[in-house]
Amino acid sequence: MGKIYIVDGTLREGEQSPGVYFTRDEKVEIARELDRIGVPILDVGMPSISAEERETISAIVHQRLRASVGVSIRLKKEEVNQAIECGVDEVFVICPVSSLHLKLKLSTDEEGVKSLAKEVVGYASRNGLLVNLVAEDASRADIPFIKEILYHAYGWGAQRAFLCDTVGVMEPFRMKEMVKRVRDEIPSEMGLGVHCHNDLGLATANTLASIEAGADYPSVTVNGIGERAGNPPLHEIVLTLEKIFHREHGIDKTRLYRLSQLVEKCSGIFISPHAPIVGLNAFRHESGIHVDGILKNSQTYKAIDPAEVGREASFVLGKHTGTQAILYLLKQRGYEAKEEGLREILQKVKEKKVAKGKGEIRKMAEEIEEYYKENLNFSMQDFWEIVKEVLKKDA
After folding, report:
1. pTM
2. Could you give the number of structural domains in the chain?
3. 346 & 369 share domain
4. pLDDT (tens digit, 9 = 90+) per residue, 101-160?
5. Both ends of the chain: CA-CA distance in Å?
6. Residue range 173-228, pLDDT digits in tens
7. Spatial separation of the C-alpha atoms in residues 300 and 308, rounded to whole Å
8. CB neighbours (10 Å) of residue 323?
9. Is 273 among the domain residues?
Protein backbone atom coordinates (compact mmCIF):
# COMPACT_ATOMS: atom_id res chain seq x y z
CA MET A 1 0.00 0.00 0.00
CA GLY A 2 2.88 2.35 -0.81
CA LYS A 3 2.93 5.53 -2.84
CA ILE A 4 1.63 5.61 -6.41
CA TYR A 5 3.86 7.31 -8.98
CA ILE A 6 1.90 9.00 -11.75
CA VAL A 7 3.44 8.79 -15.23
CA ASP A 8 1.99 11.46 -17.52
CA GLY A 9 2.10 11.02 -21.31
CA THR A 10 0.16 14.10 -22.41
CA LEU A 11 3.09 15.46 -24.41
CA ARG A 12 3.69 12.16 -26.19
CA GLU A 13 0.56 9.98 -26.26
CA GLY A 14 -1.76 12.96 -25.87
CA GLU A 15 -0.25 14.74 -28.83
CA GLN A 16 -0.84 11.60 -30.89
CA SER A 17 -4.57 12.36 -30.77
CA PRO A 18 -5.57 12.70 -34.44
CA GLY A 19 -5.25 16.32 -35.51
CA VAL A 20 -3.55 17.54 -32.32
CA TYR A 21 -0.16 19.18 -32.14
CA PHE A 22 1.55 21.33 -29.52
CA THR A 23 3.95 24.16 -30.22
CA ARG A 24 7.28 24.18 -28.43
CA ASP A 25 6.12 26.92 -26.08
CA GLU A 26 2.93 24.99 -25.32
CA LYS A 27 4.86 21.82 -24.57
CA VAL A 28 7.18 23.66 -22.22
CA GLU A 29 4.24 25.35 -20.49
CA ILE A 30 2.36 22.07 -20.06
CA ALA A 31 5.49 20.30 -18.78
CA ARG A 32 6.08 23.06 -16.24
CA GLU A 33 2.49 22.91 -15.02
CA LEU A 34 2.63 19.10 -14.73
CA ASP A 35 5.78 19.57 -12.65
CA ARG A 36 4.11 22.20 -10.47
CA ILE A 37 1.25 19.89 -9.53
CA GLY A 38 3.70 17.16 -8.53
CA VAL A 39 3.69 14.64 -11.40
CA PRO A 40 6.97 12.75 -10.86
CA ILE A 41 7.53 11.21 -14.31
CA LEU A 42 6.87 12.71 -17.76
CA ASP A 43 6.93 11.07 -21.18
CA VAL A 44 7.41 14.14 -23.37
CA GLY A 45 7.75 12.79 -26.90
CA MET A 46 9.53 10.58 -29.42
CA PRO A 47 12.95 11.88 -30.53
CA SER A 48 12.73 9.92 -33.78
CA ILE A 49 9.85 12.07 -35.09
CA SER A 50 11.98 15.00 -36.22
CA ALA A 51 14.81 17.37 -35.40
CA GLU A 52 12.19 19.87 -34.24
CA GLU A 53 10.80 17.30 -31.79
CA ARG A 54 14.28 16.70 -30.39
CA GLU A 55 14.80 20.45 -29.96
CA THR A 56 11.50 20.69 -28.07
CA ILE A 57 12.45 17.76 -25.83
CA SER A 58 15.79 19.44 -25.08
CA ALA A 59 13.95 22.68 -24.25
CA ILE A 60 11.85 20.80 -21.69
CA VAL A 61 14.96 19.18 -20.21
CA HIS A 62 16.54 22.62 -19.84
CA GLN A 63 13.65 23.72 -17.61
CA ARG A 64 15.33 21.73 -14.83
CA LEU A 65 12.07 20.28 -13.60
CA ARG A 66 11.74 18.24 -10.44
CA ALA A 67 10.03 15.57 -12.53
CA SER A 68 12.05 12.90 -14.29
CA VAL A 69 11.85 13.62 -18.03
CA GLY A 70 11.59 10.62 -20.34
CA VAL A 71 10.92 9.86 -23.99
CA SER A 72 9.52 6.90 -25.90
CA ILE A 73 11.73 4.99 -28.29
CA ARG A 74 11.55 1.86 -30.40
CA LEU A 75 13.91 -1.10 -30.29
CA LYS A 76 16.65 0.82 -32.09
CA LYS A 77 20.03 1.88 -30.73
CA GLU A 78 19.99 5.02 -32.86
CA GLU A 79 16.88 6.14 -30.97
CA VAL A 80 18.71 5.56 -27.69
CA ASN A 81 21.40 7.88 -29.02
CA GLN A 82 18.79 10.49 -29.90
CA ALA A 83 17.41 10.31 -26.36
CA ILE A 84 20.92 10.75 -24.93
CA GLU A 85 21.50 13.79 -27.16
CA CYS A 86 18.26 15.34 -25.84
CA GLY A 87 19.58 14.98 -22.29
CA VAL A 88 16.59 13.09 -20.88
CA ASP A 89 16.61 11.06 -17.67
CA GLU A 90 14.86 7.94 -18.89
CA VAL A 91 13.48 6.06 -21.88
CA PHE A 92 10.30 4.09 -22.44
CA VAL A 93 11.40 1.29 -24.76
CA ILE A 94 8.37 0.15 -26.76
CA CYS A 95 8.67 -3.61 -27.07
CA PRO A 96 5.87 -5.53 -28.86
CA VAL A 97 5.07 -8.78 -27.07
CA SER A 98 1.97 -10.22 -28.78
CA SER A 99 2.44 -12.69 -31.62
CA LEU A 100 0.32 -10.38 -33.79
CA HIS A 101 2.65 -7.42 -33.28
CA LEU A 102 5.81 -9.51 -33.46
CA LYS A 103 4.83 -10.96 -36.80
CA LEU A 104 3.26 -7.95 -38.47
CA LYS A 105 5.31 -5.08 -37.02
CA LEU A 106 8.75 -6.56 -36.48
CA SER A 107 8.66 -9.64 -38.75
CA THR A 108 10.18 -11.66 -35.93
CA ASP A 109 9.30 -14.10 -33.17
CA GLU A 110 9.71 -14.26 -29.39
CA GLU A 111 13.41 -15.10 -29.55
CA GLY A 112 14.00 -12.35 -32.06
CA VAL A 113 12.38 -9.64 -29.95
CA LYS A 114 14.24 -10.83 -26.86
CA SER A 115 17.50 -10.39 -28.73
CA LEU A 116 16.53 -6.88 -29.85
CA ALA A 117 15.35 -5.90 -26.37
CA LYS A 118 18.51 -7.22 -24.73
CA GLU A 119 20.66 -5.11 -27.05
CA VAL A 120 18.66 -1.88 -26.71
CA VAL A 121 17.88 -2.11 -22.99
CA GLY A 122 21.47 -2.95 -22.16
CA TYR A 123 22.82 -0.16 -24.35
CA ALA A 124 20.48 2.44 -22.82
CA SER A 125 21.25 1.30 -19.29
CA ARG A 126 25.00 1.35 -19.84
CA ASN A 127 24.67 4.92 -21.09
CA GLY A 128 23.08 6.08 -17.85
CA LEU A 129 19.41 6.13 -18.79
CA LEU A 130 16.71 4.75 -16.51
CA VAL A 131 15.02 2.14 -18.68
CA ASN A 132 11.32 1.30 -18.77
CA LEU A 133 10.44 -1.74 -20.88
CA VAL A 134 6.99 -1.10 -22.33
CA ALA A 135 5.30 -4.40 -23.19
CA GLU A 136 3.17 -3.30 -26.13
CA ASP A 137 -0.09 -5.21 -26.73
CA ALA A 138 0.41 -7.20 -23.53
CA SER A 139 -3.35 -7.69 -23.22
CA ARG A 140 -3.28 -9.91 -26.33
CA ALA A 141 0.00 -11.66 -25.57
CA ASP A 142 0.81 -14.92 -23.79
CA ILE A 143 1.40 -14.21 -20.12
CA PRO A 144 4.24 -16.74 -19.77
CA PHE A 145 6.18 -14.87 -22.46
CA ILE A 146 5.44 -11.51 -20.84
CA LYS A 147 6.79 -12.76 -17.53
CA GLU A 148 9.83 -14.24 -19.23
CA ILE A 149 10.87 -11.14 -21.16
CA LEU A 150 10.25 -8.81 -18.20
CA TYR A 151 12.28 -11.05 -15.91
CA HIS A 152 15.16 -10.97 -18.39
CA ALA A 153 14.73 -7.23 -18.97
CA TYR A 154 15.47 -6.56 -15.31
CA GLY A 155 18.74 -8.44 -15.71
CA TRP A 156 19.54 -6.45 -18.86
CA GLY A 157 19.12 -3.18 -16.97
CA ALA A 158 15.44 -2.23 -17.09
CA GLN A 159 14.26 -0.79 -13.77
CA ARG A 160 10.55 -0.71 -14.60
CA ALA A 161 8.12 -2.49 -16.86
CA PHE A 162 4.77 -1.40 -18.28
CA LEU A 163 1.93 -3.67 -19.35
CA CYS A 164 -0.07 -2.13 -22.19
CA ASP A 165 -3.70 -2.66 -23.09
CA THR A 166 -2.83 -1.17 -26.44
CA VAL A 167 -6.22 -1.48 -28.12
CA GLY A 168 -8.39 -1.24 -25.01
CA VAL A 169 -9.81 -4.76 -24.99
CA MET A 170 -9.38 -5.63 -21.32
CA GLU A 171 -11.90 -5.48 -18.50
CA PRO A 172 -11.00 -4.89 -14.84
CA PHE A 173 -11.17 -8.49 -13.63
CA ARG A 174 -8.92 -9.83 -16.39
CA MET A 175 -6.62 -6.84 -16.07
CA LYS A 176 -6.24 -7.39 -12.34
CA GLU A 177 -5.48 -11.08 -12.89
CA MET A 178 -2.86 -10.38 -15.57
CA VAL A 179 -1.08 -7.74 -13.49
CA LYS A 180 -1.07 -9.93 -10.38
CA ARG A 181 0.38 -12.90 -12.25
CA VAL A 182 3.15 -10.74 -13.71
CA ARG A 183 3.83 -8.90 -10.43
CA ASP A 184 4.24 -12.21 -8.60
CA GLU A 185 6.81 -13.50 -11.10
CA ILE A 186 9.08 -10.55 -11.88
CA PRO A 187 11.72 -9.28 -9.41
CA SER A 188 10.21 -7.38 -6.50
CA GLU A 189 12.71 -4.56 -7.06
CA MET A 190 11.32 -3.94 -10.55
CA GLY A 191 8.67 -1.22 -10.74
CA LEU A 192 5.49 -2.22 -12.57
CA GLY A 193 3.24 0.16 -14.47
CA VAL A 194 0.29 -0.04 -16.84
CA HIS A 195 -0.70 1.90 -19.93
CA CYS A 196 -4.38 1.52 -20.80
CA HIS A 197 -6.48 2.73 -23.72
CA ASN A 198 -10.11 3.76 -23.56
CA ASP A 199 -11.61 2.13 -26.66
CA LEU A 200 -14.40 0.54 -24.61
CA GLY A 201 -14.49 3.22 -21.92
CA LEU A 202 -12.58 1.09 -19.40
CA ALA A 203 -9.16 2.72 -19.27
CA THR A 204 -9.66 4.23 -15.81
CA ALA A 205 -11.27 1.07 -14.42
CA ASN A 206 -8.51 -1.14 -15.84
CA THR A 207 -5.80 1.15 -14.47
CA LEU A 208 -7.33 1.12 -10.99
CA ALA A 209 -7.73 -2.66 -11.11
CA SER A 210 -4.04 -2.88 -11.98
CA ILE A 211 -3.13 -0.75 -8.97
CA GLU A 212 -5.13 -3.09 -6.75
CA ALA A 213 -3.11 -5.97 -8.21
CA GLY A 214 0.24 -4.38 -7.42
CA ALA A 215 1.06 -1.89 -10.19
CA ASP A 216 2.45 1.36 -8.82
CA TYR A 217 3.18 3.37 -11.99
CA PRO A 218 -0.11 4.23 -13.74
CA SER A 219 0.19 5.98 -17.09
CA VAL A 220 -2.27 8.84 -17.66
CA THR A 221 -2.88 11.91 -19.80
CA VAL A 222 -4.48 15.24 -18.97
CA ASN A 223 -8.17 15.15 -19.93
CA GLY A 224 -7.66 11.59 -21.16
CA ILE A 225 -6.51 12.68 -24.63
CA GLY A 226 -4.61 10.18 -26.74
CA GLU A 227 -4.82 7.77 -29.64
CA ARG A 228 -8.38 6.97 -30.76
CA ALA A 229 -10.58 7.14 -27.61
CA GLY A 230 -7.67 8.24 -25.41
CA ASN A 231 -6.22 7.13 -22.09
CA PRO A 232 -7.06 7.35 -18.37
CA PRO A 233 -7.52 11.01 -17.37
CA LEU A 234 -5.05 12.23 -14.77
CA HIS A 235 -7.78 13.80 -12.63
CA GLU A 236 -9.87 10.60 -12.47
CA ILE A 237 -6.95 8.45 -11.34
CA VAL A 238 -5.74 10.97 -8.75
CA LEU A 239 -9.13 11.55 -7.13
CA THR A 240 -10.02 7.84 -7.06
CA LEU A 241 -6.66 6.98 -5.53
CA GLU A 242 -7.36 9.43 -2.75
CA LYS A 243 -11.10 9.07 -2.15
CA ILE A 244 -11.54 5.31 -2.61
CA PHE A 245 -8.13 3.64 -2.45
CA HIS A 246 -6.65 5.99 0.18
CA ARG A 247 -3.27 5.86 -1.54
CA GLU A 248 -0.63 8.57 -1.53
CA HIS A 249 -0.08 10.18 -4.94
CA GLY A 250 1.75 13.47 -4.31
CA ILE A 251 -0.43 15.52 -6.69
CA ASP A 252 -1.66 19.03 -5.85
CA LYS A 253 -5.37 18.60 -6.57
CA THR A 254 -6.12 22.32 -6.40
CA ARG A 255 -4.24 22.84 -9.68
CA LEU A 256 -5.94 20.02 -11.63
CA TYR A 257 -8.64 22.24 -13.12
CA ARG A 258 -6.14 24.87 -14.24
CA LEU A 259 -4.02 22.17 -15.89
CA SER A 260 -7.08 20.69 -17.56
CA GLN A 261 -8.05 24.05 -19.02
CA LEU A 262 -4.50 24.63 -20.26
CA VAL A 263 -4.41 21.34 -22.16
CA GLU A 264 -7.91 21.97 -23.51
CA LYS A 265 -6.73 25.29 -24.91
CA CYS A 266 -3.51 23.90 -26.37
CA SER A 267 -4.96 20.68 -27.81
CA GLY A 268 -8.19 22.10 -29.19
CA ILE A 269 -10.09 19.13 -27.77
CA PHE A 270 -12.92 20.48 -25.64
CA ILE A 271 -13.77 18.93 -22.29
CA SER A 272 -17.22 17.36 -22.14
CA PRO A 273 -19.52 19.27 -19.74
CA HIS A 274 -20.18 15.95 -17.98
CA ALA A 275 -16.52 15.03 -17.53
CA PRO A 276 -15.90 14.11 -13.88
CA ILE A 277 -14.10 16.73 -11.76
CA VAL A 278 -13.06 19.08 -14.58
CA GLY A 279 -16.27 19.25 -16.65
CA LEU A 280 -18.55 22.29 -16.62
CA ASN A 281 -21.36 20.40 -14.87
CA ALA A 282 -19.25 18.50 -12.35
CA PHE A 283 -20.33 20.82 -9.52
CA ARG A 284 -23.41 22.52 -10.96
CA HIS A 285 -26.95 21.61 -9.90
CA GLU A 286 -30.36 22.24 -11.44
CA SER A 287 -32.65 19.46 -10.18
CA GLY A 288 -34.98 20.67 -7.43
CA ILE A 289 -34.49 17.50 -5.39
CA HIS A 290 -30.72 17.84 -5.49
CA VAL A 291 -30.66 21.56 -4.75
CA ASP A 292 -32.99 21.07 -1.79
CA GLY A 293 -30.72 18.37 -0.38
CA ILE A 294 -27.55 20.39 -0.91
CA LEU A 295 -29.01 23.45 0.77
CA LYS A 296 -29.76 21.31 3.81
CA ASN A 297 -26.34 19.63 3.79
CA SER A 298 -23.83 19.83 0.93
CA GLN A 299 -22.77 16.21 1.44
CA THR A 300 -26.16 14.87 0.36
CA TYR A 301 -25.22 15.06 -3.32
CA LYS A 302 -21.46 15.68 -3.31
CA ALA A 303 -18.66 13.17 -3.03
CA ILE A 304 -15.95 15.80 -3.58
CA ASP A 305 -15.60 19.28 -2.15
CA PRO A 306 -15.16 21.42 -5.30
CA ALA A 307 -12.61 23.62 -3.50
CA GLU A 308 -10.30 20.57 -3.29
CA VAL A 309 -9.88 20.67 -7.05
CA GLY A 310 -9.94 24.40 -7.59
CA ARG A 311 -13.65 24.58 -8.42
CA GLU A 312 -16.81 26.20 -7.04
CA ALA A 313 -20.33 24.80 -6.76
CA SER A 314 -23.25 26.64 -8.35
CA PHE A 315 -26.98 26.35 -9.02
CA VAL A 316 -28.45 26.60 -12.52
CA LEU A 317 -32.01 27.70 -13.22
CA GLY A 318 -34.00 25.70 -15.73
CA LYS A 319 -36.76 23.20 -16.44
CA HIS A 320 -35.98 21.10 -13.33
CA THR A 321 -35.55 23.97 -10.84
CA GLY A 322 -37.55 23.81 -7.59
CA THR A 323 -38.81 26.49 -5.22
CA GLN A 324 -35.93 26.01 -2.78
CA ALA A 325 -33.43 27.31 -5.35
CA ILE A 326 -35.63 30.36 -5.99
CA LEU A 327 -35.98 30.99 -2.26
CA TYR A 328 -32.22 30.67 -1.78
CA LEU A 329 -31.48 33.19 -4.53
CA LEU A 330 -34.04 35.67 -3.22
CA LYS A 331 -32.52 35.54 0.26
CA GLN A 332 -29.09 36.36 -1.22
CA ARG A 333 -30.48 39.72 -2.33
CA GLY A 334 -32.72 40.32 0.69
CA TYR A 335 -36.02 39.59 -1.08
CA GLU A 336 -38.99 37.86 0.50
CA ALA A 337 -41.83 36.08 -1.29
CA LYS A 338 -44.87 34.09 -0.26
CA GLU A 339 -45.53 30.59 -1.60
CA GLU A 340 -47.72 31.93 -4.41
CA GLY A 341 -45.04 34.39 -5.49
CA LEU A 342 -42.34 31.71 -5.40
CA ARG A 343 -44.36 29.43 -7.65
CA GLU A 344 -45.10 32.23 -10.10
CA ILE A 345 -41.41 33.13 -10.35
CA LEU A 346 -40.56 29.47 -10.81
CA GLN A 347 -43.16 29.03 -13.55
CA LYS A 348 -41.88 32.07 -15.45
CA VAL A 349 -38.28 30.80 -15.17
CA LYS A 350 -39.28 27.46 -16.68
CA GLU A 351 -41.33 29.07 -19.42
CA LYS A 352 -38.45 31.37 -20.38
CA LYS A 353 -35.99 28.46 -20.51
CA VAL A 354 -38.23 26.41 -22.80
CA ALA A 355 -39.23 29.42 -24.92
CA LYS A 356 -35.60 30.02 -25.81
CA GLY A 357 -35.74 26.96 -28.04
CA LYS A 358 -32.92 24.83 -29.48
CA GLY A 359 -31.77 27.12 -32.30
CA GLU A 360 -28.53 28.20 -30.60
CA ILE A 361 -27.73 24.63 -29.57
CA ARG A 362 -28.11 23.35 -33.12
CA LYS A 363 -26.05 26.24 -34.43
CA MET A 364 -23.26 25.50 -31.95
CA ALA A 365 -23.33 21.78 -32.80
CA GLU A 366 -22.81 22.65 -36.47
CA GLU A 367 -20.00 25.07 -35.62
CA ILE A 368 -18.23 22.51 -33.44
CA GLU A 369 -18.54 19.87 -36.16
CA GLU A 370 -17.03 22.30 -38.66
CA TYR A 371 -14.31 23.30 -36.19
CA TYR A 372 -13.21 19.70 -35.66
CA LYS A 373 -13.34 19.06 -39.40
CA GLU A 374 -11.07 22.03 -40.10
CA ASN A 375 -8.73 21.96 -37.10
CA LEU A 376 -8.41 18.30 -36.07
CA ASN A 377 -7.90 17.15 -39.61
CA PHE A 378 -5.75 17.79 -42.65
CA SER A 379 -7.33 18.96 -45.87
CA MET A 380 -6.96 16.35 -48.62
CA GLN A 381 -7.10 19.20 -51.11
CA ASP A 382 -4.03 20.72 -49.44
CA PHE A 383 -2.38 17.29 -49.45
CA TRP A 384 -2.83 16.77 -53.19
CA GLU A 385 -1.62 20.29 -53.92
CA ILE A 386 1.56 19.52 -51.97
CA VAL A 387 1.95 16.25 -53.90
CA LYS A 388 1.60 18.02 -57.26
CA GLU A 389 4.04 20.74 -56.21
CA VAL A 390 6.69 18.28 -55.07
CA LEU A 391 6.33 15.82 -57.95
CA LYS A 392 6.37 18.65 -60.47
CA LYS A 393 9.86 19.57 -59.21
CA ASP A 394 11.02 15.98 -59.59
CA ALA A 395 9.66 15.63 -63.13
Report:
1. 0.94
2. 3
3. no
4. 999 999 999 999 999 999 999 999 999 999 999 999 999 999 999 999 999 999 999 999
5. 66
6. 999 999 999 999 999 999 999 999 999 999 999 999 999 999 999 999 999 999 99
7. 17
8. 16
9. no
